[in-house]
Amino acid sequence: MSIAPAELTDRLGRWSAGRGPLYLLLAAQLRRLIDEGELPPGTALPPDRAFASALAVGRGTVVAAYEQLRVECRIIRRQGSGTRVAGPSRPEPRPTTGSPVFLHLLEPQDDDVILLACAAPASPPPILLSAYERALSQLATITSDIGYHPSGLWQLRRAVADHYTHRGLPTDPDQVLITNGGQQALSLLARAFVEPGGTVVVEAPTYPGALEAFREQTASLQTLPVGLDGFESAARAARGPDLAYLVSTHHNPTGAVLPSLLRRRLAVAAAHADVLLIDDEVLAHLAFPGQRIPPPVAAFGATVVSVGSLSKSVWGGLRIGWIRAARRVIDRLARLRAVHDLGGNLPAQLAAAYLLPRLEGLCQDIAADRQTRHDHLRAELARRLPQWQAPPVTGGQTLWVRLPHGDGDSFSQTALRHGVAVLPGSGLDASGGSKEFIRIHFLATPDTLSEAVHRLTTAWHAYGDGHDGGAPAPRSMAI
């Protein structure tokens, strides 16, 4: 299937009406058509020159836009065969794991598929039920509150502020904005501080949801190694970045923890360049027993913005996140948030206010069990797939696994056909790298992890033999 230049131009609408470089505006509109399914996988896109003529722009604009989408793995460009939307050109027996990866992971999957891609607690802990019972009793006493709190319930803002103060970062409640999860926090920051065509410095690899939030604002993503090595030079550039994004603790996906000295260097560099540095702390509390976590990056600099959430430490269905930043930043974000959302769910915020003072103890209670599952998964991989490299981590939820050959994109499709969903590394890397990696989590029970590795082993043998399109092997256990 192919689409004519004139037809595609019509579908783009007023694509050039925004601000920023034309190639980024064009890439943004094409990305939207791809992600919303208007340009299905396998669709042949117009040649560079013909498309440029239809758009009345230079060929370089089309080439640059196509290259941006190629790096994001949304299109495939091959010499002699043109440009196509990434993915199979005809329906597969199971859904794919193509971009945007973080959206696909939230869709329902077949019951017999073991999900090792999306890392989050599988069920709410008992303490959450107690928190909601307490919240409902508090709701019964409210008589003069209409329930709109655009910046968040003051009681919860105070709990978040006390949480940071306890960690060595003195914080007032008016330095806190409550959001509907960490993803909304990142989206608000991108909308508020990224100019169209502006630059955001990110790690390669990193959390894919952050990449999507920045791309939504037609940002140009500049990649640096994990830990933002080289950030000082990037921040001092003639036209410095609009934002920088970092996962400093139990990095997603590698599990790395940035030492205190490097945290200080990044915070000082950001302050000197007047660049907002986002420190994503959603995984910060998930250390294994005996592991000491350095202070928040924000403890070393006033231009650091901390983002947190209860989705990984408590439950993903509790849509409570927050932003901790300077008052001027919070004020700007609160005005923007009110335009899109007059306030979050009040019962959930009351429950979260009860949970925050107990969060450290809750995470400690489950730390040993998570380490046991981490060790079990690594042992099973070492026994059945010794060629795979799966370095240990000191916390978090995932392993960053390097395949000895092939690529994560094609192997993830093979694995899915054999009943396991894994996350290909390319979707987490804005530089176009990490193709030889996959990300898998270790939150499942030991029995489920053993069965998952069994299926991955079968898939790997099929993949290595070039039979990845065949039928899956029989399952030895129903999940």
UniProtKB/TrEMBL annotation:
- Name of the protein described by the UniProt record: PLP-dependent aminotransferase family protein
Q: Which SMART domains match?
A: HTH_GNTR
Which ranges carry the HTH gntR-type domain?
A: 20-88
Q: Name one Pfam family in it.
A: Aminotran_1_2
* PROSITE patterns reported for this sequence: HTH_GNTR
Please, which domain of life does this record's source organism belong to?
Bacteria
| Tagged with keyword DNA-binding | yes
Signal peptide bounds: none
Family per record: In the C-terminal section; belongs to the class-I pyridoxal-phosphate-dependent aminotransferase family.
Q: Which InterPro entries match?
A: Aminotransferase_I/II_large, HTH_trans_reg/aminotransferase, PyrdxlP-dep_Trfase, PyrdxlP-dep_Trfase_major, Tscrpt_reg_HTH_GntR, WH-like_DNA-bd_sf, WH_DNA-bd_sf
The organism's lineage is: Bacteria, Bacillati, Actinomycetota, Actinomycetes, Pseudonocardiales
